Amino acid sequence: MYQYKFSDEDExxxxxxxxxxxxxxxxxxxxxxxxxxxxxxYDMSFDTNSNNSDSSIKFEKxxxxxxxxxxxxxxAENSLAEEKKNEIDSIINEAENSKNNIxxxxxxxxxxxxxxxxxxxxxxxxxxxxxSDEALKRGLGRSSIIINQIDAFEKEKIDEYMAxxxxxxxxxxxxxxxxxxxxxxxxxxxxxxxxxxxxKLNEKIKEINDELYQKQQEVIKYNNEIAEKEAEYNLSKExxxxxxxxxxxxxxxxxxEFIEKYGINALxxxxxxxxxxxxxxxxxxxxxxxxxxxxxxxxxxxxxQLGNKYYDLLARMNNR
Length: 320
Hints:
Layout: H1 8-22, H2 31-42, H3 69-137, H4 144-262, H5 264-283, H6 288-297, H7 299-306, H8 309-318
């Protein structure tokens, strides 16, 4: 039906994004990042806005669920379409079968009446023949007696014909009445189903609305939680940026005073010493061969970062 889905995977994916941002540890900082931090510490051109966020963080939110009543009704009708077709077909087919049975009964009573009449014809022909033969034996072949007797046979046959036709007419009328009642019964059944279908359709629409409303509330709640996390993070970031800005202003004053008192070379010496200390801690986490390979293969970079302290670090790694 609807493809509005609020899954655990959505929340897990977003929360992992949040956690990865909020829970990053200082220990995960790379050596090059630590070098950059030291450069910033000793840099007279330090930008007080350099550590500020490029923009407020925006976590991924879920799309709001729109509740379209026309589409909901159409979806409800589609979900009940097969059931509706089966019910209506069942009513019509049952009525059609009954109609066919009644029509077959009408044909049967007609055929039965014709058979009865045919049998009567044979019976009275035989009776007339017997009477005629008896009259001839007695020499009364053309007498009024035999003629009256034969006429009486014809009258009896006609009376029986009339009885058969009356019985046939009654049977056909009864069957035609059943056909009329059958049509009324079919229309009533269809009308009753229309009422039942309308009730079921309304129930289905309500079910879909309830489901979508529940999902809508879940999305709203989730997005509100995300908005709160964004606000908390951005507020924390603003405080952090303000603190960094204040620290950087103080840092610039300290650096300027140091240079004025001791000179720029003394400042570089301190910076290289700081970098040497963090590099020493960093490379002590590796075996001797790995550390030496890294220092030698990227000698230009490390000389630029460490100055003459590069050779001290190389010696310390080599003597391990």
